[in-house]
Amino acid sequence: MSDTLHWSDTRAEIHKIVVGPFENNVFVLRCRETGEAVLLDAANEHEKLLALCERLNVGRVLETHGHWDHIQAVPAVREAGYRVAVTAEDAGMLDSYDDLLEDESVIEVGRLRLHTLLTPGHTPGSMCFALEGAPLLFSGDTLFPGGVGNTENGGDFPTLITSVEDRLFAAFDGDTLVLPGHGDDTTIGTERPHLQEWIDRKW
User: Fold this and answer.
1) What pLDDT is stored for residue 143 in this prediction?
2) 15, β-bridge pairs
3) Residue 152, CA atoms < 13 Å, CB-side half-sphere
4) Which terminus of the chain has fewer Cβ atoms in its 10 Å neighbourhood, N or C?
5) CB-based burial of residue 5 (10 Å sphere; 0-12 exposed, 13-18 middle, 19+ buried)?
6) What is the CA radius of gyration of the chain?
């Protein structure tokens, strides 16, 4: 599958490609004014991702978390000269990386400002990214349509629920578009009313 222009406004555009056996979503956020871009999650099929990076002028790679299905292409993109950033809590899951992502910091992508939000639970260092001035949230595997991410591989369900409740549902407007690590988009407003159901079913 080739990438598609998934979303755009006057300032930003988001390209999406689905790769690998787990159908990981990989997003490129690009500043329309300067042409600078970042790639979120070097998941798999590195040839496709490197072609995407070259075509869209990607400068660096940001990882939402360290699970293996989200990092398969990291060695190849680093070898090609792209810097890869991950949280300190998940850094040990990668064979190699370049930079550490910190909570509540700002990553400048051309004229765009991408805010980091540490949302532990799916992994200890799972991170979401919110685009300043636009109703957009890259949620990794923290939040999906119909529930939170699984906590079977080093996660913690109560921690994840707290992250979603306090850092996502309480912080973002209902019309905020959620772009997850797998599957379709959703919105904060669609998912927020169902939090108690997820707590009751324990997944």
Assistant:
1) 98
2) 5, 28
3) 2
4) N
5) exposed
6) 16
Tokens of 100: 């550490």
pLDDT score for 3: 84
199, two tokens:
């707590």
**Spatial separation of the C-alpha atoms in residues 124 and 151, rounded to whole Å:** 10
Alpha-carbon distance of 58 to 35, in angstroms, equals 9
User: What would you measure as the largest C-alpha separation in the chain, in angstroms?
Assistant: 47
Reduced DSSP (H G I as helix, E B as strand, rest coil) percent helix, strand, coil of the chain, to 5: 25, 35, 40
52 contacts 41 by C-beta, under 8 angstroms: no
Q: Which helix (DSSP H) or strand (DSSP E) does residue 50 occupy?
A: helix 46-56
Looking at 3.30.230.10, 3.30.70.980, 3.50.50.60, 3.60.15.10, the CATH number of the domain 4-201 comes to: 3.60.15.10
Please report, for the chain, the start and end positions of each structural domain, with discontinuous segments joined by +: 4-201
Say which residues have a Cβ less than 8 Å from residue 186's Cβ, sequence separation at least 6.
Answer: 143, 144, 145, 146, 177, 178, 180
**Which two structure tokens, joined as six digits, stand for 92?**
């040990």
Mean pLDDT, residues 127-151 taken together:
98
Structure tokens at 194: 């169902």
DSSP H helical ranges for 57-101: 74-79
Residue type, 172: F
pTM for the model: 0.98
Please determine, for residue 16, whether its predicted confidence score (pLDDT) is greater than 70.
yes
What is the tens place of the pLDDT at every residue in 18-75?
Answer: 999 999 999 999 999 999 999 999 999 999 999 999 999 999 999 999 999 999 999 9
